[in-house]
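FW: tagging you since you asked about this chain on Friday. Here's the raw sequence from the shared folder, copied in full. Didn't touch anything.
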Amino acid sequence: MFKKFVLFVCVVMVFASCQNPKKVNSSVDPVNWKKRQAFSHSGLDSLQTGTTYLSVYSEIYSQTEHITHELTVTVSMRNVNRKDSIFVASAQYFDTHGELIHSYFEQPIFIAPMETVEIVIDEKDTQGGTGGNFLFDWKQQSGVLEPLFDAVMISTSGQQGLSFSTQGKRIQ
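HL: got it, structure written out here
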């Protein structure tokens, strides 16, 4: 009887271990992108455009290239203008190998004057790897300050903490 029980437990463990791991998606205060959509798309065609690159790290190496620390990533899209909105046409997240992980919205969104809109990538979501990247396509009126894109990466364990930041660079 005991042998049958042990055999049953082994069979259950084999089947349980064969399941594909679930992808972890960001869940911290997700933004409702539809509520942020720009109202008139036709008026956006006459605006100045730009593209900003931002490096992010959902994990970093520790001690060797075989050990990594997982990080929570907070990406900030900032409008530094006091009076004018800016528009972000796309926010695309790529992994270390340049593969697209996620496009955050399909229609341009607005960011009100002095507002910050954030994308949070959970600590357990390591899809971006050690060399994740964002590309932001944006639009603004002539004479308006460009948006700022930056990221803060953080990890805490017990009394230990690790954090650093990166800033976007305009590439177009």
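FW: Residues 79 and 147 are 5 Å apart (CA to CA).
HL: agreed, and Residues 2-17 form the longest helix (16 residues).
FW: great, closing this out.
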